[in-house]
Amino acid sequence: MKHTISALVENHPGVLARISGLFSARGFNIDSLAVGETEDPTVSRMTIVVEGDERTLEQVKKQLNRLIDVITVQDLTQKEFLDRELILIKVKVTQKDRAQIIEIAETLKANIADVGLNTITLEGVGESAKIDTMIELLKPFGIKEIVRTGKIAMARDPKAEEK
Amino acid sequence: MTTKMTGAQILVESLKKEGVEVIFGIPGGAVLPLFDVLYDAPIRFILTRHEQGAVHAADGYTRATGKVGVCIATSGPGATNLVTGIATAYMDSIPIVAITGQVKTFLIGNDAFQEADVTGVTRPITKHNYLVKDIKDLACIVKEAFHIASTGRPGPVLIDLPVDVSIAEAEFHYPKELCIRGYKPTYNGHPGQIKRAAKVIADSKRPVIYAGGGVILSGGSHLLKELATKIQAPVTTTLLGLGSFPETDELSLGMLGMHGTAYANYAIQNSDLIIAIGARFDDRVTGKIDEFAPHAKIIHIDIDPAAISKNVKVDVPIVGDVKNVLTELLKIVHKPATKEWLERVMQWRQKHPLDYKADEKLRPQYVIQQIYEATKGEAIISTDVGQNQMWAAQWFTYTRPRSFISSGGLGTMGFGLPAAIGAKVGKPDEYVFVLAGDGSIQMNIQELATAVVNNIHVKVAILNNGYLGMVRQWQELFYKRRYSYTRLVNPDFVKIAEAYGAVGIRVAKKEEVRPAIEKALHTKNVVVMDFIIEEEENVFPMVPAGKAIDQMIGSMA
Fold first, then answer.
1. Which domain holds residue A131?
2. Are residues A98 and A46 in the same domain?
3. 8 Å CB contact between B38 and B13
4. CB pairs under 8 A between A and B
5. What is the mean pLDDT of residues B376-405?
6. What is the CATH number of the domain that holds A87?
7. Please, which residues 128-157 of chain B have a Cβ atom closer than 8 Å to chain A?
């Protein structure tokens, strides 16, 4: 099963190396990893998607917690959370396909980021499933290049009725 | 108004604030400013002959005293020579601080002379490490390093100090308190879990206490004794747990595992409750993991949450410091009915004792027994790795914590002599013996010079069988006696000892053993005893790799 782990870490050089080194040394597989500064500039947020059973996940969390530079570790999979990925996808385009591609972009609320002589580049944001759908729909036209970020995620706040 | 100090001065002042009495190391280009300050600092400096000797000596000092050991090496090769020793300390949770020089900050990454990415290299083998880029951070980093090394699950911390930072100037303020937001070890066990443990103990019929190095690290040996006595449970220890429980006690089963006693392994396999204290279910202890203690519930007390349920499923996990948890547990625990169980265990002990052939030949077990008798057990034993280590574990009777010093997790040959030097520096009034093989002693034999020059009078017993003995034993038992590159053609160890200024004694006959040991004890110098032992003596009992721990081979299993 895939788990989405959200870790707050010190915003120092070398912290990413510590974390990626831990995953490779302990034989854990990272599906994706995204890092960025938080509202506190001394702290970064890492969102790590990792594949594994409960026992592996337990070890991943414990081993992450052992690192001095790791402040907190949360497994978001156990709660309600929002997640988003960003994709840039460059598609071959001919005169007759152009309208169809623009229609797909509109349906999926993707932006047209760049238009070239023979290509269109779309920019999509959403959950992994939406990004996957976007790729599938564009495949028939001929995909030239894909750049995809790791997932970022955030716990949802409790809803009014849950309070 | 405070005066400014250089980085090197700040570092040495900080070490003084941490109570550092002795440093082991070797100078070099990138640590010249630091050594200039050390030249007249009130800290003893012991110049080793190899950086690996320095880090093992710092480690041995720590294991013997409980104080944080410190070593210093220069950048590049000096620092990479520390790597094996840092990994050794990391695997055994030994708190040391290693300080390395680094090239100037603006040269880092330029493949400068004697540059190596030391924080990168040591990242997976340190509890934490630092590259000091700004002199303003230096005092705080030293404070953090000692704190992190010695608290929680202890471990080595490395500080990499670029030479320009060591000559830069700043005001010196040693911080009083620290707040490392990502580091908050749990010391007190959860009261509910401790209650559950007490209940499980009271309900057990066949409990065994399995004690590891964590008991010694936490200073909880007296509480372990109290617990065992109170609940009348037998105690077996890991290699690093030797000395945590007196082996003269009738509840002691000695060491368990691959070369443990048969009765300890039988007790574990037949138990209905294992109380694991400061131990981590290493593969050398558990043997085939699926068949380990098949009828037992497990209580696991450890300060490192990641050690719990890593290898075996635990029924009652208790995260906390051994000393604190045992103190609380002792308040509420009741004695289960263990009389019948103890009788069974004692029968195993009578039926399957550790044994060797007591003939006229010079056998290693006899040598170790004689060292025990000659010192009345009042000695620190520092071992190398291999057969010598296992015989030392089996045949000396350990009664005090910090009296057995050995590289357990990493299994580092060449550890024994430099670690003994560190131990003797920390405990100058104790006899310190090195138990080494003819293979392992040669991996750091240059440290004889360090011992002789500094009057650190360790006594080295080489159990010389002319082989890399443990590998030869495996080749004999599992590779049809094909002794592939395990035969050693050795130098004359007596002459080597003499060349270094030590006393060398060759012992080839059984009746010469005791007189040689007595002579060593009465000689005010480093002594090297070259015991020419039976070449093909094996360490038994032995659990072959991949077997359950009651599937032992050897005459006395």
1. 83-154
2. no
3. no
4. 34
5. 98
6. 3.30.70.1150
7. 128, 131, 148
